[in-house]
Amino acid sequence: MNENNKLLTIGQFAALHGINKKTLMWYDETGLFKPAAINPENGYRYYNYYQSPVLETILLLRELDVSISEIHEFMQNRSAESLKCLLDEKITALDNNIIHMQAVRKTLCNHRQNMVTLLTMDLSETSIVEKEERCLVTVDIDNDTSFEKEVELITTETTRYQIGRLHDASYGSMIPVTSLQNGNFNGYTKLFIEIPFIKHKKDLHIQPKGKYLRAFHKGNWDSLQLRYQELLDYADKNGLKLAGFSYEKGINETVVDSIEDYILQIEIPVSN
What we know:
Layout: E1 7-9, H1 10-16, H2 21-29, E2 37-38, E3 45-48, H3 52-63, H4 68-76, H5 80-120, E4 127-131, E5 134-140, H6 147-160, E6 170-176, H7 177-181, E7 190-194, E8 205-207, E9 210-218, H8 224-237, E10 241-242, E11 245-250, E12 263-271
Helix pairs in contact: 1-2
């Protein structure tokens, strides 16, 4: 007798596929996957080797969160075409989920790096760091832009780029270096949103790769201009030419309650 024609008990068949035999019993009861034979005397279920590919297809679809009703429909109209269409749909959904999880991972890594910075930083220190190019979504603002309008602008862009939650991106503000050099320390012109794994660069602001002057400011914004003046003096003393924008972002919002404890990271490109 061909070994493939031999019947396996429900326990053996379940073990072969790495599942609980109660799963097979449930599939039988719902009509999704029937045993090859049932002992009329004791009701024991038996399966054969040729049923394995069908069960593996069902298990794969369940792993992809395909509903029982969808699998029922597929099983009743099973064909290469119907399986291809179903798998095309689920592969697209899986790809989108992978992109989302990669974005979440990058966000978590950014938060972790912020915590490392907090634990090792010297608030009085000014340093030169190397940064990679970043693509930023920006919205234009000026001194007359209300907080409510800023929220509206950010909300529009997060919807446009399909950001599900605020933690899926990082946010900050930008002020031109020319404004700082002219003593206009409140001359903010843009808010930025950094979106992990953005698919294109069209219409985006490119934060250039290269050396940056980095410093930190703790507390409210009233004394921020003093910190900026210190940075300008540091650049002048060390022969550094600053260019473009100063990029500001908070790095400890998640672990403080008071604005007096708020720490702002400042990064300004150093041109060659």
